[in-house]
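Help needed: design a sequence for this.
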């Protein structure tokens, strides 16, 4: 059993209500479970395969979920990059290995399941790309239509390809992501579509399992979790999951939450650095990491709390630093990610070089999306293949 609760005024809403924000004060909602007498044990979880649904008692879905077998992603020890940075315990949780190639699938399996549970007939979102790819895929699985709004010309090729192929109604808005989100929120409220951006509290319920799986894979709560921050939903979700583990008595440790943004799109970094109570939106965010090109993060209020309450930090990295780390991950660790994902590890590199990290710290970087999401940015960084005549003499010549 759960309730929807406003994080600002504490107003409570019944789970059957279609509501995205508090109707009294307009702040964000969160899902609260009764964890005092949970009716399950850690052993129940451990008896199930590693997957988002291992944690079903603290998820809001009561019926059959709409699932494509999301979660259960690998946790890699980054030995080479770790050695270079003097960090023995540096890990990457590869969320690019979810069904649509990003962690958004964790949010969408729960979100689309909830859409059906609530009797909604059509789902919608605004997206920098991955949310739309994922929603299109889960709507297809559920057999319901999806409407997605994208900032025109600012979405990586692979993501648009997915949204189109899986049959979503794809609309390119001549404006940035923040404007597209305003529009789709208005549309959902007036036309009765179900909104599946990360303002939807159920999406974050799915995403919190990134942290829960990490704890189970590592055998302990890491000292630090590092995430790229766009709309700031994921970092908020992972923190919430950790708080619930604590409330359940399964741990008494919470990781230091560390958010990384691109230098051209860093409203959260600014809010943390300046101690702002309320985040100031950035007008024209720009970065090669299009998944985090967001000036007015919807979940800022939750994310600022997550960072501040854990003694964490938010820092920025340049596009060059992001791309360099994308290449390092690919070539030194065999981990293929899109640019936004490399930001988390680039942020750790920057902190290590500034002497801000303990060499024994157990650090888990969430790498959020797959390399093939943005093939154009990959190709631009690489030398083209060497073309030769079809004979062995030419082959030997180029290898010499
Ligand atoms: C959505 C996304 C992010 C940002 O996550 P938020 O929850 O919006 O902060 C980062 N990386 C990738 C690949 C994404 O798709
Ligand atoms: Zn409220």
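Sure. Designed sequence:
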């Amino acid at each position: 059993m759960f309730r929807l609760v406003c994080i600002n005024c504490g107003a409570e809403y019944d789970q059957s209500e279609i509501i995205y924000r508090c109707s009294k004060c307009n702040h964000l909602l969160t899902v609260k479970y009764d964890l005092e007498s949970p009716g399950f044990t850690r052993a129940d979880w451990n008896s199930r395969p590693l997957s988002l649904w291992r944690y079903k008692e603290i998820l809001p879905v009561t019926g059959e979920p709409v699932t494509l077998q999301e979660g259960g992603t690998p946790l890699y020890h980054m030995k080479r990059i770790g050695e270079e940075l003097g960090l023995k315990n540096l890990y990457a949780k590869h969320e690019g290995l979810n069904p649509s190639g990003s962690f958004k699938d964790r949010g969408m399996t729960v979100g689309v399941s909830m859409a059906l549970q609530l009797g909604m007939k059509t789902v919608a979102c605004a997206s920098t790309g991955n949310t739309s790819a994922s929603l299109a895929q889960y709507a297809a699985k559920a057999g319901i239509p999806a409407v997605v709004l994208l900032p025109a010309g600012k979405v990586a090729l692979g993501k648009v390809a997915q949204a189109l192929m899986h049959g979503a109604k794809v609309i390119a808005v001549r404006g940035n992501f923040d404007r597209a989100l305003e529009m789709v929120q208005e549309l959902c409220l007036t036309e009765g579509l179900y909104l599946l951006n990360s303002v939807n509290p159920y999406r974050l319920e799915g995403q919190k399992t990134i942290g829960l799986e990490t704890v189970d894979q590592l055998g302990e709560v890491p000292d630090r979790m590092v995430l790229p921050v766009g709309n700031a939903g994921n970092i908020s979700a992972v923190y919430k999951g950790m708080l619930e583990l604590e409330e359940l008595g399964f741990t008494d440790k919470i990781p230091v939450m560390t958010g990384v943004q691109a230098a051209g799109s860093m409203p959260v970094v600014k809010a943390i650095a300046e101690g702002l109570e309320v985040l100031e939106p950035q007008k024209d965010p720009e970065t090669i990491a299009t998944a985090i090109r967001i000036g007015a993060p919807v979940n800022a209020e939750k994310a600022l709390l997550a960072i501040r309450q854990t003694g964490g930090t938010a820092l920025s990295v340049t596009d060059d630093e992001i791309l360099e780390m994308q290449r390092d991950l690919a070539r030194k660790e065999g981990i293929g990610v899109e640019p936004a994902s490399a930001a988390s590890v680039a942020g750790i590199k920057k902190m290590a070089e500034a002497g801000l990290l303990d060499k024994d710290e157990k650090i888990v970087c969430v790498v959020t999306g797959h390399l093939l999401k943005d093939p154009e940015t990959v190709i631009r960084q690489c030398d083209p293949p060497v073309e030769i005549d079809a004979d062995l003499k030419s082959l030997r010549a180029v290898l010499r």
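The CA atoms of residues 388 and 397 lie 9 Å apart.
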